[in-house]
Design brief:
Strand content of chain B: 15-25%
CATH class of chain B: Alpha Beta
Number of helices of chain A: 4
Oligomer: heterodimer
Number of domains of chain B: 1
CATH class of chain A: Alpha Beta
Shape of chain A: globular
CATH topology of chain A: Muramoyl-pentapeptide Carboxypeptidase, domain 2
Helix content of chain B: 25-40%
Helix content of chain A: 40-55%
Number of strands of chain B: 5
Number of strands of chain A: 4
Protein name (chain A): Trafficking protein particle complex subunit 6B
Main location (chain A): endoplasmic reticulum
Pfam family, one (chain A): TRAPP
Order of helices and strands of chain B: EEHEEEHH
Number of helices of chain B: 3
Largest interface: A-B, 17 and 21 residues
CATH architecture of chain B: 2-Layer Sandwich
Distance between the termini of chain B: 18 Å
Structural class of chain B: alpha+beta
Family (chain A): Belongs to the TRAPP small subunits family. BET3 subfamily.
Subcellular location (chain A): Endoplasmic reticulum; Golgi apparatus, cis-Golgi network
Number of domains of chain A: 1
Chain lengths: 154, 147
């Protein structure tokens, strides 16, 4: 579908433009912050019609189902938690990685493409009242794991 | 109280942030609009109480609309909390019986829509005071509509 391709192309262009123009070590935080702002707004928009969330797990389920479907047209494939503030979201076909060759060749480029989605999750959760650190990890190419570590203030 | 019907819908509309500071507050022009600021401020405790009670009783409607927070002699205060903990407070005159629950609901709905549009504006920094003219227009429509 055309509208899905637009987002993919825009994202690819943003990443490649940044890495051409900005300092290497600044690129990831810039992309992450960009995602944060977008996630923050999207959370506001997507939760408009949903009922109030009961707890943290409820919010995570929302991220995995509604949020992911709205952004990436599919649900997160697996959600795991240790019930102590660490959640792992596994997406077997991560949309931002599907256009990249599914071999080990571009594995080291993957973090560049995952900075934006990480920020997206962090921003959405921040707006819903959960401050956290989100990191991504890729072992086999189109599959990706997002680790969410919740920071408790107390 | 004069016999004439009030043409105003709401007398005060306020948007309060996650951290309980006002993002936006608009009142009808009166000599002491500080009174409304005070009313809105005191309503926050009731809002807090209502949110905290939601999880405890089962088969509770987990709605964003909180309903009537508290009535005073002259005014009724209604509340609404988004999932992102932004609070909307609307004050109407008690004498205004034309406003039913449904109308209040629609008002909040409109307010929420306007707020989401505002947050999606890339030039607006979340947590800043709201100065958007579009948002203001929505609020003004709520306050001065003729009945």
């Amino acid at each position: 579908m055309a509208d899905e391709a637009l987002f993919e192309f825009l994202h690819m262009e943003v990443v490649s433009y940044l890495f051409k123009t900005a300092d290497e070590e600044k690129c990831i935080p810039i992309l992450e912050n960009m995602g944060y702002r977008v996630g923050h707004s999207l959370a506001e928009r997507f939760t408009k019609d949903s009922s109030r969330f009961k707890d943290e797990l409820d919010i995570m389920k929302f991220i995995c189902k509604d949020f992911w479907t709205s952004v990436y047209k599919k649900q997160v494939d697996n959600l795991r938690t240790n019930h102590q503030g660490v959640y792992v979201l596994q997406d077997n076909r991560c949309r931002v990685l599907t256009q990249i060759s599914a071999s080990k060749q571009y594995l080291e480029a993957a973090p560049n493409y995952l900075a934006f989605p990480c920020g997206l999750i962090r921003g959405a959760l921040a707006n819903l009242g959960i401050s956290c650190i989100v990191t991504a990890e890729v072992q086999n190419m189109p599959a990706c794991k997002f680790q969410i570590m919740i920071q408790r203030s107390q | 109280m004069t016999g004439q019907r009030s043409s105003k819908m709401a007398v005060c509309v306020a948007v309060i942030s996650k951290e309980n500071y006002p993002l936006y507050i608009q009142t009808i022009p009166t000599e002491d609009d500080l009174k409304f600021h005070y009313t809105v401020h005191t309503s926050l405790d009731v809002v807090e109480e209502k949110i905290n009670n939601v999880g405890k009783t089962t088969n509770d409607l987990r709605e964003l609309y909180l309903g009537l927070l508290y009535p005073t002699e002259d005014y009724k205060v209604y509340g609404y909390v988004t999932n992102t903990k932004i609070k909307f407070v609307v004050v109407v005159e008690s004498s205004n019986t034309a406003l039913r629950d449904n109308e209040i609901r629609t008002m909040f709905r409109k307010l929420h829509n306007a707020y989401t549009d505002l947050v999606c504006n890339p030039f607006y920094t979340p947590g800043d005071r709201i100065t958007s003219r579009v948002f203001e227009k929505v609020v003004n429509a709520m306050m001065l509509q003729d009945s």
